Amino acid sequence: MTDYALVSIFCPDRQGLVAAVTGRLFDLGVNLGDTSFAVLGQGAKFTSVCELPASISFDDLSREMTDIPMLQGADIEVTDFKLEPVHGPSQHITHRITLSGGDQPGMIACLSEVFIEFKANIVRLVSETASEGGYAIRISVYIPESAAACLATVQNTAEGLQLSYHVDAS
Fold it and tell me: Does domain 92-169 correspond to CATH entry 3.30.70.260?
């Protein structure tokens, strides 16, 4: 049986961080599955579903991550990934939506609620605050049916929030 681990790392953002983490994982024979990296303020979050070789335990992997000099003092978690490591149908991206404008409370909640009505699934969401007060949201979504109606509703909601709207079909 193959062991899958969820590796989560949070630390201050540093140049070369992704290379240091993925290089060590490669050296250990770990195969990366779904992986994300994001700068969050002045911090950085790396998350990956990893297929472990038989010779590496979760504890071994955790120790190896803490031995990376760039990760001294980082929050590192290595836990059992008990779900399927492969996407199901509702995790495939059909559309990528980009919204931008001024920041306001409840914006992401308001936009994400639209997808419920259309049985759509948000696969990935990234939001960023710009230093001059602007805000950008990128949503990768699976829309199983009525895509035109769903996207029109998202656009209307975005316009009501005074956000610019752009969509690309995948």
Answer: yes
Query: Higher pLDDT residue, 144 or 132?
Result: 144
Residue showing tokens 């001294």 = 72
Encode pLDDT of 139-156 as tens digits: 999 999 899 999 999 999
Between the alpha carbon of residue 57 and those of residues 60, 86, 96, the distances in Å are 5, 21, 37
Four-residue CA torsion sign, 143, 145, 150, 152 = positive
| CA–CA gap between residue 114 and residue 55 (Å, rounded) | 46
Q: Confirm whether pTM is higher than 0.85.
A: no
Banded model confidence at residue 85, pLDDT cuts 50, 70, 90: confident
Write down the CATH superfamily of domain 3-80.
Answer: ACT domain (3.30.70.260)
| Burial class (CB within 10 angstroms; exposed 0-12, middle 13-18, buried 19+) of 78 | buried
